[in-house]
Amino acid sequence: MNYKGGVMWRLWWWKRDEKKKTKLEVLQQKYAIMDKIQAVFQPKIIAQYIPLTGADLTNFINLYTPTTKIVTEVDFNLANYLNAFLKKY
């Protein structure tokens, strides 16, 4: 390779930037879902569904706050979820 003058442009990094952009979008969607979960799983709201109070309610929330994967399932129902895990608690 005996190049004589000129400029060589290599644009291979654009795909890497696209991958970073898609990963960032996925993370932003995940964080938005996590914010919604944290907004719902507050002691004042959960106490309306289950008969726990005080430290028991706080421990229940800490143990059984759902993940983003569980919440994004098609058949997720908050009342059913809480009742199922209340029986386990």
Question: Would you give an account of this structure?
Answer:
With 89 residues, the chain is mostly helical. 65% of the residues lie in helices and 0% in strands. It has 5 helices and no strands. The model has no long low-confidence stretch (mean pLDDT 84).
For this entry, give a set of tags:
about 90 residues; 5 helices; mainly alpha; single chain
Number of strands: 0
Low-confidence stretches: none
User: What about the largest sheet?
Assistant: none
Question: Helical element count?
Answer: 5
Residue share in β-strands:
under 5%
The first-to-last residue Cα distance is 71 Å
Quaternary state of the chains: single chain
The SSE order reads: HHHHH
Mean pLDDT: 84
Quickly give the structural class. Answer: mainly alpha
General form: rod-shaped
Share in helix: 55-70%
Radius of gyration: 24 Å
Please outline the helices and strands:
Blueprint: H1 13-40, H2 43-46, H3 54-64, H4 68-71, H5 78-88
Gist of the model:
The chain is mainly α and 89 residues long.
